[in-house]
UniProtKB/TrEMBL annotation:
The active site is at C142. It comes from the Bacteria. GO terms for biological process: DNA restriction-modification system; methylation. One of its GO terms (molecular function) is DNA (cytosine-5-)-methyltransferase activity. Its EC number is 2.1.1.37. It catalyses: a 2'-deoxycytidine in DNA + S-adenosyl-L-methionine = a 5-methyl-2'-deoxycytidine in DNA + S-adenosyl-L-homocysteine + H(+). This is Cytosine-specific methyltransferase. InterPro entries: C5-MTase, C5_DNA_meth_AS, C5_MeTfrase, SAM-dependent_MTases_sf.
Length: 395
């Protein structure tokens, strides 16, 4: 219900705002009934409460919907809004978003003003999606399908999160979609997973879907080696039968572009004991002929892909000799190293993913690393979405 209220208040289009009005008013009525149990909730009380909430919610969020939006989209598996930021940058109005993780929803609302709806697999969440919109965006998780001995069609995807995406496309028939996933989807389950996805999109849902492409974030202005598979599609009645993915930009980003210029907290510097553990761990793998282990980046190079878990940080260590106070501010074993070796900060990870510095980080460092590690790279999404818009004539 809170999601309905925020979608009602922050949708710029009256048509889409009206879609969420009934549920928003029901939520306000339930609050008033709880506060005034002995009163009959009148229409005037509802409207007064709505106006008060609207006034208090009109605060300037960092990334409000533009007044001059010229196309609509929905944001599934929204995370912290990487898709949304990219499509808003090129004139999009996000009319619905869905994300199940509570901390990601907190970050999303802090930056866009809307609280995403919850689990997209639930019928009540799907029911909240507006009837029509131009583009569907989704960075859905990769799962295997049970397709042994079957043709790998729509019904064979049941029980997977792709099925929910396909179901929404089937019902709402957007003009186009943009899907993003890990590079490993190309050979997941010996290629059967991707083959099933493409078969459903092309044959069952009747969309023109060009061959997917692996796109690297480093080619679009951020110094991160992040390869992801992009899948786009167009409704066949639009008579679009060709599509070119965006060409890499003529840029050479480097790690130095995203590093903090001022001294950062000592908490980001590794302890001597932790560093020793990493050195020993790497040596054990090297002795076995493996390439696993920590890595200290060159400032004129690019970062490894930022991912969840400690390895994402350990593979992206940097040298920073600006630290002047070596007194620990967190519980660590041993002293802080004197070699200048530290983790990147969450803000630096945000920059690696193309988030501007005005993007607010409102969660703990642990959650922030997780959120940015799970996010899409904004510039790569934006460049691909622009190519879609060019063909739809929605630019």
């Amino acid at each position: 219900m809170i999601a309905s209220l925020t979608h009602f208040l922050h949708n710029k289009s009256a048509v889409y705002s009206e879609h969420f009005k009934a549920e928003a008013l029901n939520f306000i009525k339930s609050l008033l009934s709880w506060k005034f149990p002995d009163k009959e909730i009148s229409e005037k009380m509802l409207n007064d409460a709505l106006n008060t909430i609207a006034d208090s919610s009109s605060m300037d969020y960092p990334f409000p919907t533009s007044e001059n939006s010229h196309f609509t989209f929905i944001d599934l598996f929204a995370g912290i809004g990487g898709f949304r930021l990219a499509l808003q940058n090129i004139g999009g109005n996000c009319v619905f978003s869905s994300e199940w993780d509570a901390f990601s929803k907190q970050t999303y609302k802090a930056n866009f003003g809307k609280l995403p709806f919850g689990d997209i697999t639930l019928p009540e969440t799907k029911a909240a999606i507006p009837k029509s919109f131009d583009v569907l965006c989704a960075g859905f998780p990769c799962q295997a399908f049970s397709i042994a001995g079957k043709r790998g069609g729509f019904e064979d995807t049941r029980g997977t999160l792709f099925f929910d995406v396909a179901e929404i496309i089937k019902k709402h028939k957007p003009k186009a979609f943009l899907l993003e996933n890990v590079k490993g989807l190309t050979n997941h389950d010996k290629g059967k997973t991707l083959a099933t996805i493409l078969n459903v999109l092309r044959e069952d849902l009747n969309y023109f879907v060009p061959d997917p492409q692996i796109i690297n974030a480093k080619d679009f202005g951020v110094p991160q080696n992040r390869e992801r598979i992009f899948i786009v599609g167009f409704r066949k009645d639009l008579n679009i039968n060709s599509f070119k993915y965006p060409k890499p930009l003529d840029v050479s980003p480097s790690v130095s572009d995203i590093l903090e210029k001022e001294e950062v907290s000592v908490k980001y510097y590794l302890s001597k004991q932790y560093l020793s553990t990493l050195v020993n761990h790497k040596k054990r793998h090297e002795d076995k002929g493996n390439g696993f282990g920590y890595q200290i980046l060159e400032n004129n190079g690019i970062a490894n892909a930022v991912v969840c878990g400690g390895m994402g940080r350990e593979r992206n260590l940097i040298l920073d000799h600006k630290l002047t106070n070596f007194t620990p501010v967190t519980k660590i074993k041993g002293e802080v190293n004197r070699e200048g070796i530290r983790k990147m900060t969450p803000r630096e990870w945000a920059r690696l993913q193309g988030f501007p510095d005005t993007y607010e980080i409102v969660v703990s460092d642990a959650q922030a690393y997780k959120q940015f590690g799970n996010s899409v790279a904004v510039p790569a999404i934006q460049a691909t979405a622009q190519e879609i818009l060019n063909l739809l004539d929605l630019k």
